[in-house]
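Possible regression after last week's pipeline update?

I re-ran a chain I had predicted before the update to compare outputs. Posting the input and the new output here so someone can diff against the archived version. Not blocking, just want to make sure nothing changed silently.
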Amino acid sequence: MKLRTLGSLSVEGVSFRRQKVRLLLAYLCAGGPQPRRRLADLFWPEAANPMNSLARHLVHLRTLPGAVRQDGSRVEAGAAVCCDVRELRQLAQGSHLEAATALYGGPFLDTLNIPVDIPLAADLEEWVYETRETLAREVRGLWLNLAVVAESGGSGSGARARRRPGNRPPTP
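New output (post-update):
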């Protein structure tokens, strides 16, 4: 199962009507394992019973085999979920710059219309915007590195020399 977060928010082959269920899955994929209490307080701070709200949303995710794992009081995205953000970062770390940039489909959760379609608590909304900015910077860095490689004629040594930590990025 593929979770798309770059440019849109969807789970391929699955139609969840509730965006918050998809957002919860995206949060677990991008943020790693989380305590149940933290998720409840982050997603439903105004609810009378945030833990119950979390439980109801996790029920929806459990309908997808392998989507979530629970270990005591911790929840994480299951191994069956392939998330485009994690894939992009793995490709970038493995120096597969072209494949990583090809995967980029637009800003993180770009189709999530905050606060019109889905009102979020301030902390969760801040997480969405911070993650969007961080990923945009990472992808910009990938594009700049690709430009350096292209400028050097594909020679890895010239490109590596310019990409060393502390060196200023090339002028686009």
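Follow-up from reviewer: compared with the archived run. The chain is about 50% helix and 10% strand. Marking as no regression found.
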